[in-house]
Each structure stands twice: as C-alpha cells, then as structure tokens.
C-alpha cells in the first residue's frame, strides 16, 4: 500500500509549523514536547515517531521505525492525551489535522499491540457509553442502518467483490482472490446449514442479497430475506428479477423482529452486530417461533473475546447503535430458546485479509469516492478500514460463525468432515 | 441390548403383588391407581406402561409400547410423584424396588423426551441444590474424585477400551469400533492443538494417562499430566515406565490449582465437570500463568445448553461436586485471561454412542462386577450409563470441545481443513 501521505494530498503538504508558532514562547514548545512524550509513553514500544505541530520530531527508540504520525493542530495534540483520544484521533485524521506516514494498517496495528492497558478514566467512559448507547428501537435501527448502508450501491460496488458481499470472506488459502473467498464463504455457510432441496430459509439482514441468491441457486431452497436498508433491498430485488428467481427468493423490507412463518434454516450474516444486547432475547424469540424442530441456524458476526463496546469513534462515525458481542453475550439469544451450539468457528484472520482487499480496492477508487463525497469522507473510511484491519490482526475484534439447533435435535451432522470434502460444489462454480 | 429384567434377576422375578396387599382395602388400590395415573401424565405421550405394587398394569395409549416400569414398593411409588422423584427412581432402581422392562436406554430416552416441563417445586429445588452443592476445595475435590475414579483400575478395564479412555470418543463413522474411536479422539485433540515436536504440554486431569502418552508418542512433545486420583496416577506411571517414556511424560499427583511452569499447550479432557463454576476463575488464572503467548488450549467437557445442575441422583450417587457448564459459564474461565475461543465442536451424539459401547461391555461383565461389588452397585452403574445415553440422545447433556488461544495470537490455524486431512497419522497407527 502506498503511504497515506501520497494518497491523500492535503493543503498542507508536509509537517509544518502552524502560523504564529515561531513567535510563541519556549514554554509552548516545552508543552508540546511534554504532550508528545506522553503520546510516546502511551504507545509503549511501538516503533512509531511523532511530528508535533511545531515541527519537532520525536523519534521512536526502534532503529527501523514503521512510520510517523504527524499532528498539525495543537488542540488535536492535546485531545490525543485526554480521555476521548480515540475520537480526537479519528476526527483529527478525517479533517486532515493528523497525517499517518507508512502503511496505515501496519502503523495502527503496532499502536494497538503496544498500547498500555486502559486507564480508570477510560474504563469509566466505556461503562458510561454502554449505558448511553442508542437503543435499537425499530425506528432507531432504521436510522442506524441508513447511516451506513444507504451510501449508494455504486459506492460499495467500487470496492466490494462482484457479488457485493460486505461481510468477512472465507479464504480457503491465504492467497485466494476476494471473489473466490466470498463465494467460498457462502459455500461454507451453506454446507454448515446442510440445506436440502425444497427447504425454506429465513435470512435476517441480507445485504445486497448475494447469500440468499446463492442458496436458492445452488441448493434449490426457498429463501425469505429481510433487510431494513431500502437501497440494498431494491438492489437485491433487481438481481432476483434479472436472474429470474423471484419465485424462490423473496426480499422483504422489514425488521428481523417482524419475521413470521416457519423455516428449516435461519441464517444471519453480519446483522447481530446491529441488534444490540438489549434485543438478543427478542432475536431468540424470533428464531424460536420461526425455526422448525429439526431446523438449523447460523449467526455470523463481529465479536469480542472480552465484553466491550465498539470504540467511540466507530460508534459515532461508522456504526451507530452497533455492539460486537462476546459468545457469552450471544447465549442470551440461544439459551432461552433451548438452542444448543453445535459449532463455533473463529474467522478472525479472514476478516483482516478481507479488509486488506477492500482497502486496496478502495484506495484504487480514491478519486471517484472523493468526487462522489469529499476528502473527509475518504479519510473517514480509510481510517475505518485500516483500523478494522488492525483490530482483527491484534484480536481486539473477532469473527464468529455460530451454528446451532434445538438442543435435542436428531438431525445433526455426525462430524464436520462434510465441510471440507472436495472443492466448492460444481453447481456453485457453474452458477458463477 | 437384552432387557434389563433378563440381566438383573432379583428375588422377585416378576411383577407381583406384595404380601398383604390382597387383603388391603379397595381404597388402597384406588390410591395406587391415582398415583399411577399421575406418573402416566408426567411422562406424557411416552409409550411406556407401569405395573403398580398391587399388580395392576397401566398400559400406555401407544399400540406398541417400548417397555414397562414395574414398581414393587408403595413408598417408592409415592416418592416417584414427589419433588425428589429423581432420587426415588434412582435409589429405587438400585435397590430393586423398580424394574425396567425393555431396552433401558430407549425407555429412559422416551421418558426424557416426553416429560412435562419442570414444576415450580422442582425449579426451587434446583436453585436450592445449586446453592448447596459441595464446594470443590482441594480436600473436597480429592474426596469427590476418589468416590468415582478410585473404584479399582480393574473394574474400569472390564468395560473401557484398551487405552482406558473414560471420556467421549470421536467416531469418524458411526459404526467405528470403540477402540478406533478413542484413538481418533486423541488424534482429533492433538490436531486441534497443532503440536510440534519439542513443545511442552500441561494436561489437567489425565485419567489413566492415555492422552498424555499418545501425545508424547505421536507428537514428540513433553507432557506434564496432573490428576488427584491416586489409583489412576499409579496406573499411568506404570504405563509410562513400561513404554519407556518417563523422560517425556511426567504424571503428577496434584490438583490443577497447583499447576506451575509454562507450556505451549494446555489440555483438559473431562475435568471441567469436576471443577465447579465457583472455581472457573481459578482455572482461568492457572491457564493464564501457564500458557505461552502463542500457546493453544483445549477444554473437553460435558455441558448443557441451559444452565442446570446434574440430576440430584447423579450428583449424590455418581459425581459428587460435579457440574455440567454451559458455554456461557465457561466464559468465566476464558474471558478474564484474554483468551479467545477459536473453535467449539459439539460431540453430543458421539457421547451417546460411546456410552452405548460402555453399557454393552459393562453388561457382558455383569457377574464379575457383581462379585467384586454387589448387585446394588451393578444396578446403580447400569442406571448411570443408560441414563447418560438418554441424556445425550435427548440433548439434556451436550459434549463440548473448546479450542482457545490468546485473543491476538498470530499462530492460529488458517482453516480447520487440517483436522480432516486423510486418516489418523501413520505414527499414531504404528504406535498402536
């Protein structure tokens, strides 16, 4: 990846001394340096340098630094050592007041790995944010989803794979292409669910419809797919019409809480993050009333190994109302409905790889995105993608696929060998 | 399996009318019948008949009954409709006051499936037992383990596989032999842990040493294996001497809480059930201080999909101090230690199959066991094995293998394909 500086030329092309600083007192310099030292201490052994607003450079102890963080604004510099440092960093980067030199994801990864454990103040802040997180009422969910997913299908088509899958892919080999990996992910999910021709599937949160279409196409199942993103549903319906499968795939613009009818399989890929723990019991009730006695279900979601909200910046700028659950928190969906976990797979490294593909493609389309939106939007998304790479690489985020069934179901797979038999099915290849 | 009546000839060879009953009043008969009707109602649609102490038979609605439960004692009959029905059934069966005709496991399975949801009284009882369950202090753990595992190695060798593995096997095919399935289980665990030659392994709760020996033999690792059962440790040490591997496998008679040193892999198969939720944080601390940064760990245990103690009879007669955790409860081991779940596999049907093998072999050795202990012991163990089959078939119990690592570990398997590549390694076969 080219350095971020190359990619994002801003008015100020190099670390400069903001106007008037020259005339400021020696004390001003000392304060900046003191704050810079605190920043260095906060990232511990990470081989990252800093350039302060006054132009002074603080080099890391490491001989071969990974990169430099250039801070162009004094207020931002001060914000970076306060309790909202995450917001100051994110917004400062988006506004161009912070520049990152070096591979963005690598720099962020090094900082994540080296950062000191959170302070008491930060822990209190986290608790507070947890209490204060937007409740996902039907209306709030619609707003939250609209914020992120209704940015225009053309925007997403610039950098997603050709199937338009906006969730973690499954790379059978680390060097597989993104297109193959997204297809393999859908195959992996289909195999886990052991779908048989003629069965019915409910999909909660169907994105642009790729999985629903894949299942109908390759498994001969009837799918009812729900989503509250108007733009995604319109896109998915158009695909179903174009493929001539409207008879077996129905795209429904509605909330998961309004799912009705029965199904043999319940699948949800990338929606649980948007449900919120206060609604896990609701989701459990929906699955309980929908899923047949011998039915199978799968939840695929971004999670955590320790309970914690998304970072304040991600929650405010990227995914309002979202929450990455631990497996413990997910029990609130399954336990009351007498559902037993059959299989959990953690695909964390696959999401880092998926995001690397997305970021590379996103950067390729930098100019188009900047024209469609603006430079600040580009920088916000760049930070979101690179920061997510770092979060999955360092294990701050995890990716879980949880397969479940009624706790006494007799129709369960004897082993998991069938998931790994041969290459993806011929039908799946033929259809693509 | 032969019918239990054939297998366990008791003094009273057929449902008989206890002495004196003939002369009792019509009212006595009416009371017995009323209780019998309540029993029938309690097992709902299960095709099981009852024979009351007065000789009266209550047939099930089903045309082809699976079996009959013969109750020979009035006090036991009354106990079966009270809040401690589980204890009355277990102890009544052990004493020969209850006889079960038909395939024992099938009859119990039908009852489990058809039983009405628990009453308020039972739920209160469960809460109470949860509060009152024996705490597993170091001394209590030793007593609890001694109660079950120190019954004599020869007793267990009568009906376990030749490797003496007393935990759920892994049947690559449902018709695999028990010997192959226990070997396959050890292979499966070894593959999940991705052991490399020269690495160190800590095993907590090592039974008769089979897994520790298998890992040393097939993977070239050094194993320190802990167990507080004196008889099992003595047996395991003898095996290590006989195999000439005392240099790489050390069997230590000590509690998991006293594990020290460092390891590349931490494995525990069938011990977590005996730890008790109040000590999960202790176990987490042990793993945390023991496991290397890039280490892997595996917990294999009997669990539940909903939180609930073992039945009062199992807890009192079979496994004092034991508790089958849900995955939610197990988070108390992993979360505080920053350990992330990589893989969960539910092997429930495999434990039903394992227990079927054990029960068949146990019955084959009925006379030897009865000579060594007594008829009551035989009947207690028969009920424990058949009841466990029913519990795993119906999903009242589950069997989880949980693989974990530090949440940001970089040395994690890219996919799970390596678990299913080819047949068990040649070394493993050669060594057996």
State Rg of chain A.
23 Å
What's the CATH class label of the largest domain in chain A?
A: Alpha Beta
Percentage of residues in DSSP E strands of chain A: 15-25%
Oligomer: homodimer
- Overall strand count of chain A: 11
Give me the side-by-side strand order of the main sheet of chain A: 7-6-5-8-9-11-10
Unreliable stretches of chain A (pLDDT < 50, length at least 5) are 1-16, 424-432
Outline the structure in words:
- The structure is a homodimer of 432-residue chains.
- In chain A, the strands form two sheets. The first copy, chain A, has a seven-stranded mixed sheet. In chain A, strands 2-1-3-4 form a four-stranded mixed sheet.
- The first copy, chain A, is 46% helix and 16% strand.
- In chain A, strand 6 (222-227), helix 11 (230-243) and strand 7 (249-253) form a beta-alpha-beta unit.
- Chain A has helices spanning 4-7, 26-42, 74-79, 85-95, 104-114, 120-132, 138-149, 153-159, 178-193, 210-219, 230-243, 280-290, 312-318, 327-334, 348-364, 366-372, 375-394, 426-431, and strands at residues 48-51, 57-58, 67-71, 98-101, 200-204, 222-227, 249-253, 263-269, 291-303, 339-346, 398-406.
- The first copy, chain A, has 432 residues and is of the alpha/beta class.
- Chain A has 18 helices and eleven strands.
- Chain A folds into two domains: 4-116, Nonspecific Lipid-transfer Protein, Chain A, CATH 3.30.1050; 138-431, Rossmann fold (3-Layer(aba) Sandwich), CATH 3.40.50.150.
- In chain A, helix 12 packs across helix 14 (327-334) and helix 15 runs antiparallel to helix 17.
- The two termini of chain A are 30 Å apart.
- Chain A is elongated, with a radius of gyration of 23 Å.
- Chains A and B meet through helix 14, strand 10 and strand 11 of A and helix 14, strand 10 and strand 11 of B.
